[in-house]
Specification:
globular, mainly alpha
Length: about 150
């Protein structure tokens, strides 16, 4: 029996497939969101989930569709509240305010105070980049915590 199975003490082999993508694909189709959001969620699945390790495999237009959210750029925390992600919106807002105050203080110290107004655009960009991922986490993964 040892000759037939020389690795009988080895752990069983796991099926190496895209389990994450297959697990949530059916659930995305049943979500109570618009087809536009379902399309974004499928693209996020294709990119490998919230951390998007396979993002470069997507076409440029697909990448832009899931990495930038124009409404979140314009409205920031209000957009998060409307989407039911008030905890994350509040946490991001607080982190951005702290970062802006700190960076503004440093800019003023080194004599570059004229660049302080541009810091608001950086905070808006953080909301724009995080919004689709956070909404995916809320709707598909069921995670709607503070961070």
């Amino acid at each position: 029996s040892v000759a037939m199975n020389p690795t009988r003490y080895a752990p069983p082999r796991a099926d190496v497939q895209d389990v994450h993508g297959n697990q949530f694909t059916a659930r995305i189709s049943d979500l109570p969101v618009s087809n536009n959001w379902k399309s974004k969620f499928h693209l996020l699945e294709k990119a490998g989930g919230p951390k998007m390790p396979e993002l470069k495999a997507l076409a440029f237009g697909e990448r832009m569709k899931i990495t930038l959210n124009f409404l979140a750029f314009l409205f920031g925390p209000i957009y998060y509240i409307v989407k039911g992600m008030w905890r994350k919106g509040l946490a991001l807002f607080a982190a951005c305010v702290l970062a802006i105050v700190g960076v503004a203080f440093l800019l003023e110290l080194v004599g570059l105070g004229r660049f302080i107004n541009a810091l608001g655009y950086g905070a808006a960009a953080i909301f724009a980049v995080r919004a689709n991922i956070d909404y995916y986490k809320k709707m598909v993964l069921g995670q709607n915590g503070w961070w």
